[in-house]
Amino acid sequence: MQMANQQQAKSIAFPALCCGQGGGKPEDCISIMIHEIASYLRLNNSSIEEVHLVELNRDNVLKCFHNEVLRVCVSSIPQPTNQASNQCTIPQITVIEKDITQQKADVIVNSTTSFAVNSVDGSALSRAIRDAAGKKLQVECNAIPQASKCTWGVVATKGYNLPCKNIHHAMIAGWDFSDETTSRSHVKRVVAKCLEMATTDGHTSIAFPPIGCGGFNIPPYVLAEVIQEEVNAIGSSTSLQNIYIVVHPSQPELTKVFEQKLSKSSGNVSQIYGNLNVEVCCGSIEEQHDDVIINSVTTSMDLMKSGKLSQSMVIKGGFVIKRQFHDMKRKYASPTIRVTDGGRLPCDVIIHGATSKLGIQELVTESLKIAEEMGKSTVAIPALGTGAMGKPPLECAKLIKQGIIKFAIHNPVHVKNVKVVVFQNDMVAEFKSNLLSNSSVAPSTTSSDVVTFYLCGLSKADVDHAKGKLEDVIRKEEEVNEIPNPYISKLDAEFEKDIILLNQKNVEVNVNKSKGIIEVRGVAKFSKKASIDVQNILGESTQAETLRERVQWQYCLQGSNSFENFGLRHNMQLEKSFKVKHVVLHNAFQCTFVFFIQNDNNGKLTVSGLSIDFSSETGHLNNSAIQIFRKDLQKNFPSTWLAMRKGENCATPKVSESSQEYKDVKQKFITAGTPIKTVQQLLRIQNCSQYGQFQSKRDEVMSELNANGLSYPPTRELFHGTTSDITEKICKEGFNRSYAGANGIRFGKGMYFAVKSSYCHERNFAMPDNNNVRRMFLVEVATGEYAPEPGNESMITPPVRNPSSKTDSYHSVVDNPKSPEVFVVFKDACAYPHYLLTYT
């Protein structure tokens, strides 16, 4: 630890010291290790931020690591003070303009019918949820029993690929205008049931779409009133904290209805600031299911020393927050503001700002600008300044309001809802009285990003002139960004499609592969966001391309022997899920302990079009059953090798007669003189351990040739005929000098290989069996520099090159140095059999 600190190291990794050959008991050794690590961190101002405790495969050692860290370190983590008695527990209702399949919540509500709940096809919303959730949702819905299907009832399923834990399928019917009282009671029944089921399951958030407000003709104001009534009815007797009404962006008129109705019925809990809906609620900021949350940090930008809220975010959100916070290469990384992912928190992004340096107003404005640039729609702001800064709540509320107004006057496009979250109940009233009073920001006069100009003039020439002037003004507002990247020229079709999809009415994206440039053209604020999206896609593509150089995942359809490579994105998703994951524990000494364990998806991966079980190495690709294989390209196995099952060392797959590989290898035998009548089969030998040994020997021979300035080829392709009883042994164990002498030792007691395959055939080294079938290997042999004199039967090693050195030997011997027909090597690892030809 001391030496690492002297080197200003940020991290250090320890194995389980003395628990192996040292003979120590894991519980004793690990107890001493963790105690010393903790003591060092407590007593020294160390540069070390992470301590990795690593164990390869002993579960008892990993368990000792885990338990000891929990006992010594984690027990002293400062936890946020429990002030539940001061918190509001009545759920907060928020209207959000967003695709509900992208809304993070514990529960997402789907509107369907009792007839269509099995097919998940009762409405456009149902179909969108079905497509986003994946095939497993369809399977579960198919199994919903008849007894559970009733109009105005609710059934629950898992969320699968949606960002939720459960889906509540509300089975509704059309609104009866002749009996609105009964219809309203039915709607109340559905809403109440959804809230009741969510409460029973202990959920904290639920997202409602505008249930039935489309084809079922349920009036949106009725749904808004019913949701408000039912939320008021359950009051504080629920686990729910957030109720979201999520309206698709294509229905802005519905958004207005819900916002206006809920604002009036709930006693002015929100206020319109231009295009923004601003509300105040009571709760914990890190529990908000919003796109963005804001966190206040100290001027020194030290997360773990910025108070209990920052520490709580890191503990609950995971190590990714701390790692990204200190990564100054990330976008928006400055001395006063950092942006990180939300990790395990229910938000997408956290914006961390130095409040005392920026000021409350400036932090709010800058954070909202960043959220707008990132295309986020909902932002949660804590009661900045009321904690460590000790400012009066009313002053803090005024500064937050000024920051929101400063942002709102620019009519933001993406940010729609700003929520100010107050932790202590006794401060809520002051924040509401200030923030929810008149905003003095005029609402935008348009509900769309499109502005239509009507030009009237005395003549067409006047109109054309005015139109030209107007177009000049628009062109001045246009921004063109050229994004160069060497990977663009070989951009994968899937990633290129993602980039092309960024084209919209306000921005144009063009991919020029030949020049390696992507051009983004459009109105400045839209082109900036599109440029960021392009950079993100290129980053993902580059990462996938780099990964494919190291690992290639393959699959074959069940019952087939034909292997196909997964595409770039699936290859990356498979490798990331397959890779060993880590569990992170933080402690009171601002240091991170990392435990490496198997992947955290229970050995499974489910993404669009692909579901995999790593334990059985099987899955489904586009509904077709497949078997998967992982090919490690860093091990330098021949490119023709097929992927092998986990733990498999040797395989002898049959080479397809239609492949170019088959044609090339067969031609080598024919060219070398093999009189082939018929080929029964050609096998490729894939022996990982034997090939690894051969590679080492080949590299050794190559190094010696280079050191001596010799131009001999390090290896040669030669032939070795054999009998049926020996072939399997050679495939599994390689060549063995112990068998030397079976066919004579004229040139030494080693392994013999022929330059011409005809030599093996004509001399019956490839001896025919009872069915007249012969067998011959095509072998790569590390022959290197052969001796200048023929080999003889007394040799058990090659002769020495230099009489003064007993170790400086030739690599092989031959029958005739002037024109060799036979090569003899004396070490088993000098030869590797690539192919076995069985023929008549």
Task: Describe it.
- This protein is an alpha/beta fold and 840 residues long.
- Helix content is 33%, strand content 22%.
- The chain is built from 22 helices and 35 strands.
- The strands form eight sheets. The chain has a seven-stranded mixed β-sheet, with helices on both faces. A six-stranded mixed β-sheet has the order 3-8-7-4-6-5, sandwiched between helices.
- The protein starts with a helix and ends with a strand.
- Would you identify the regions where 5 or more consecutive residues have pLDDT less than 50? 74-88, 443-448, 580-590, 592-600
The residue fraction in helices comes out at: 25-40%
Rough outline:
elongated
How are strands sequenced across the largest beta sheet?
Answer: 9-10-15-14-11-13-12
Distance between the termini: 69 Å
Strands, count: 35
Largest sheet: 7 strands, mixed
The overall pLDDT, averaged over residues, is 84
- CA-atom Rg in angstroms: 36 Å
- Class of secondary structure makeup: alpha/beta
Percentage of residues in strands:
15-25%
The number of helical elements comes to: 22
